[in-house]
Amino acid sequence: MSFSTVLSASIQGLKVEFVHVEADVSNGLPAFHMVGYLSSEVKEAAERVRTAIRNSGLDYPARKTVINLSPATMRKRGAAFDLPIAVSILISLGELPQESTEGMLLIGELGLDGSVQKVPGILPIVLEARSAGIRSCIVPKDNAAEGALAEGMSVVGVKNLEEVFCYLAGQLHLEAQPYPERGGGSKKEELPDYSDIQGQESVKRAVEVAVAGGHNLLLVGPPGSGKSMAAKRIPGILPPLTMEESMEITKIYSIMGLVENEAPLIRQRPFRSVHHTATRAALIGGGLMPVPGEISLAHGGVLFLDELPEFQKSVLEVLRQPLEEHRIRISRSHGSYIFPANFMLVSAMNPCPCGCYPDIERCTCTPGQIQHYLGKISQPFLDRIDICAEAPKVKYESLKNRKKQESSAEIRERVCRAREIQNRRYVGTTITSNALLEVKELDTYCRLGRQESKLMEQAYSALRLTARTYHKILKVSRTIADLEGSEKIEEKHIKEAIGYRTMDKKYWGR
Amino acid sequence: MMYEYWLAAIPKLSDKKKMLLRKKIGTGKDIFYIEETKLMTHEFLNRDDVNTIMQAQKSRNLEEDFQELRRKNIRFLPHFSEEFPKKLLEIPSPPYALYVKGNLPPEDRKAIAIVGARKCTPYGEKYALEYGEKLAQCGISIISGLARGIDGIGQRGALMGKGKTFSVLGCGVDICYPKENRGLYADILEQGGGVLSEFLPGTPPVPQNFPRRNRIISGLSDVVLVMEAREKSGSLITADMALEQGKDIYALPGPVNSSLSQGCNQLIRQGAGILITPEILLEELGICGFPDTVKIDKNKKVLETTENMVYSRLDLYPRNVSSLIEETALSANEVVEVLVSLELKGYVREVSKNYYIKLK
Fold it and tell me: Which residues form a coiled coil (chain A) (predicted)?
């Protein structure tokens, strides 16, 4: 038999595309041709595959070999086609029967010694294969646990090409990878705790409300006031992930090759802290063949931007659309890619370049400098932040008097209760938290009594609120009411929410 | 007048020499056509000055430049013109000429300058606004420098009091500096006030211009009020110049530990008048009669206990929410809630995120 075909797959954005790896070995001048719109790392497979076959104790005769990766119009990247190419050649050479790979998907990179190396994107590929009716997958041993997360699929992890050959030839029996217990018993990481922070009650409360409703948060304060400290403790109070969310997040991490084989399933909400030198592509994703960026890696969790005004303005502005739509569409001439980006934005900044404002006694900045500093953050960006809190300078007394502080576990319990209330309320809708409420839904879910309406009306004119701020206050007061377990939004909830509003730009620095 | 403008616009020639030239030679036209040899006979001019004048004589588009001023609605007033403010002729080193947009302070009315720090506290802001408003209500012209902080706020107060206010700039009158006071600049002109400067239109706001413009601020006024000033600041330069010019100085007393009140307290120690209320000031100046004196009964506040607990801890210097939480032993959400209800009732104001001051 000279012609053969083997099924494999590749990742395009977040989508999985099946690829048929075809091989034809015929008489003629010895040559190795590869076609099918391949990037250079795929073309280099030629050398790896030939050497790996030879080094696995198999014979590779000098004949004319043609490899085609179909569909031929789709750009193919990565080294994951090595294994299917090798197997299809072996079939063409008559070493293996064509039927041996029927209903089977193969994927893996080959080393020159024939070893099978791990590759990114296993989980989404295996899941897609399952829904396409494929019965089994052969994947690198180091990715096997990840692949096994797709229940009901027989995933076989292999160490080297020889093993694959023997398995397909029926000479060797390999057990399918068992389903990892609770995602492989995800490592319990030691998370920092809120009980480490003395005082700063107002900041802790603001963080609690923000997490309970999934609201975007901005912390303002002088250097060393514990803004970053408060932000870094957020993972400890985030509500647990559902299985569905876990799988969705793990899929993204799998594509980026960030899944650990010992504990493949991501069971903790991601917390992505981004340095202010980040580029636009790093943040939202990009590249000729777009890959997800930090905002997609923060999907379902928290994106933390410290020193907000230090970010390039253009980088912050690209966040506006994903903050609104909770996903990002990246368009290229050959098509557009959609990545999920439903994250909670937590940001921190100093109130002025020296950090001491509004303490005029110590602040050495000119009014112009302060304006310039705050001006780096645009009003439309601020509009997307629901809660703003100030972290004041830490007093000596609070450093000295170490009182027992509330632990993260206690806060988390309240957050989870509030989230449960929200889940029950929004059952059957796409909304998962109060922060995601659209303006038209506010009437349904944030209905106010007569007294409360009057209060809002009064606040609207007295505090010169904008329509956007008004809606944000409604959403936040909904969350505060949920934290208290109150179905009705009361006056005190609204008042507290008003206290968390972001200052309008024109009042900044004045 | 075109030639007078030419003379005033010669750069690198001091006002003093220009005045001497005019006294010794005659009108601007005479100087425009004078020969080099004749100029050389005047001792007060050195070689460079003569060269400067000869260079300036070659200027071609004199007429155009002068028309440009008209087009921009800028009046050119040399010191010998009828309209030139008499008060300015009495000060040491008066400006050679003024460029004016809008009006000049009326000579028959009292004029008071309100000056102070650019970066000020809500305390200074409050009183600058109050004095600006109340004094303007009595028909007093408010003179200031359109700067950030006290200056601009004092002038804003004057506009609120439906009065006239005049800005003396450290740049050309066609330039609004700082830019964020554009609204104020327009409102001043609209309400019959004026913007004036001794610098040529188009002059950029360079730092060395500001002490010079301060002498005009004090020169145009009868009384100078210093609202908030650090120990070494531009406001104190104005006060020094006012002293030199023989004007009265009043200062707003402040806490001894506030660096922004140190300049004021220092002035008071040196014998400046103390600002207690606008009414007392007016009485001392011999101007009386407020159009309407509204007295607020300060004891008639109906506040709840928790509100009182928080309110009584606030003053005009911003307090942070966290420190209030510590002092009152209320929970974080309670304090925020109470502050918002106080804000809605108009008792407090959030000046920066989570920093509050008392209003009434």
Answer: none
Same CATH fold, A194-507 and A3-179?
Answer: no
A88 contacts A21 by C-beta, under 8 angstroms? yes
What is the pLDDT confidence band of residue A504, given thresholds at 50, 70 and 90? low
| DSSP secondary structure letters along A300-323 | TSEEEESSGGGS-HHHHHTTHHHH
Q: Which residue has the higher pLDDT, A134 or B296?
A: A134
Phi and psi at residue B350, to the nearest 5° = -90, 115
Same domain, B275 and B313: no
Judging contacts by C-beta atoms under 8 Å, the chain B residues touching residue A206 are 332
Whether residues B227 and B127 share a domain: the answer is: yes
B351/A510 touch (CB, cutoff 8 Å), yes or no: yes
Which residues in chain B have Cβ-Cβ distances shorter than 8 Å to A203? 322
CB contact under 8 A, A495 and B336: yes
Same-domain check for residues B163 and B252: yes
Same domain? For B222 and B274 the reply is yes
CA A222 to chain centre: 30
- Domain positions in chain A are 3-179, 194-507
State the pLDDT confidence band at B301, using cuts at 50, 70 and 90: low
Do the domain assignments include residue B215? yes
Chain A residues whose beta carbon lies within 8 Å of the beta carbon of residue B341: 495
pLDDT tens digits for range A285-322: 998 889 999 999 999 999 999 999 999 999 999 999 99
The alpha-carbon gap from A289 to the nearest alpha carbon of chain B, in Å, equals 43
Residue B77 domain-assigned (yes or no): no
Q: How far away is chain B from the Cα of A221, in angstroms, using its nearest Cα?
A: 9
Q: Is B250 found in the same domain as B115?
A: yes
Q: Could you tell me which residue, B356 or A131, shows the higher pLDDT?
A: A131
- Pairing label, strands A285-286, A291-292: antiparallel
Q: Is residue B85 part of a domain?
A: no
What range defines the domain where residue B192 resides?
A: 111-285
Chain A nearest CA to B332, separation (Å): 5
Task: Indicate yes or no: pTM above 0.80.
Answer: no
Among B118, B158, B130, B161, residue whose Cα is nearest residue B142: B158
Residues A406, A195 contacting (CB under 8 angstroms)? yes
B333 and B278 part of one domain? no
Best residue in A202, A387, A388, A494 to probe B by mutation, most B CBs within 10 Å?
A202
Does the pLDDT value for residue B299 go beyond 70? no
Q: Say yes or no for a CB contact (<8 Å) between B343 and A205.
A: no
Does residue B76 lie in a domain region?
A: no
Contacts of A390 in chain B (CB under 8 A): 320-322, 352-355
CATH code: domain A194-507 is 3.40.50.300
- Report the greatest alpha carbon distance in chain A: 90
Does the beta-carbon distance from B332 to A201 stay under 8 Å?
yes
Phi and psi, residue A193, nearest 5°: -115, 150
Q: The complex's ipTM?
A: 0.71
List the single residue in A with minimal CA-CA distance to B118. Answer: A367
Question: A3 φ, ψ to 5°?
Answer: -105, 140
The CATH number for A3-179, chosen from 3.90.830.10, 3.90.1310.10, 3.30.230.10, 3.40.50.80, is 3.30.230.10
Cβ pair A462:B344 closer than 8 A? yes
Q: Is the pLDDT of residue A279 over 80?
A: yes
Q: pLDDT per residue over B225-269, tens digit each?
A: 999 999 888 888 889 889 999 899 999 999 998 888 999 999 999
Q: Cβ separation of A496 and B259 shorter than 8 Å?
A: no
* Strands of A15-26's sheet in order across: A31-35, A64-70, A15-26, A3-12, A104-106, A136-140, A154-158
Q: If interface means Cβ-Cβ distance under 8 Å, which residues of chain A face chain B?
A: 199-206, 220, 351, 357-358, 360-361, 363, 366-368, 371, 388-390, 392, 395, 398, 455, 458-459, 462-463, 480, 492, 495-496, 498-500, 502-503, 508-510
Is residue A478 within 8 Å of residue A434, measured between CB atoms?
yes
